[in-house]
Amino acid sequence: MDTVKKKDKRKSPATITLQVIGGKWKVLVLYELFSGVKRFSELRRLLSGVTQKMLTQQLREMEQHGLIHREIYPQIPPKVEYSLTNLGESLKPIVDVDVRLGIETRKENQKRTKLNQVLLKAQIVLF
Predict the structure, then answer these.
(1) pLDDT at 124
(2) Does domain 1-90 have CATH number 2.40.30.10?
(3) How far apart are the first and last CA of the chain?
(4) Where are the domains of the chain?
(5) Res. 11 pLDDT band, cuts 50 70 90
(6) pLDDT of 46-73, one tens digit each?
(7) Is 51:68 a contact under the CB 8 Å cutoff?
(8) For residue 107, what pLDDT is reported?
């Protein structure tokens, strides 16, 4: 990987991977770009809670790591579109596993919440 610095060669592959896709927003950006090209404003709208500064920073880092391509159109006002590179596309199976984990975790949490509510009602009835 050309984007990995020399000092990073001593780090484990898992550490390097976390540097490349770690953080709250990068996986979410990848997830949104799997469905196609997006403009900055679209990404900002889709990623509820991200600041303009943070999104800009995350997109720049992802571009430096070769995960996304930034296309600038010379027009007024400027138009910038983001798309995935082949490397970015190759992360789809990893993000899919991440999404499945989130779905399963949410289901388990909902089950636990329902069970706790039932147990709480049972305690109230007993006392």
Answers:
(1) 67
(2) no
(3) 64
(4) 1-90, 91-127
(5) confident
(6) 999 999 999 999 999 999 999 999 999 9
(7) no
(8) 84
Structural contact between residues 73 and 79, judged by C-beta atoms closer than 8 angstroms: yes
- Residue 119, Cα to own-chain centre: how many angstroms? 36
Tokens standing for 43? 């990404």
Asked whether 44 and 50 are in contact (CB, 8 A), the reply is yes
pLDDT of residue 77: 87
8 Å CB contact between 70 and 61: no
State the Cα–Cα distance between residues 34 and 50, nearest whole angstrom.
Answer: 19
Contact between 39 and 77 under an 8 Å Cβ cutoff? The reply is no
pTM: 0.75
For all residues of the chain together, what is the average pLDDT?
86
d(CA 119, CA 115): 6
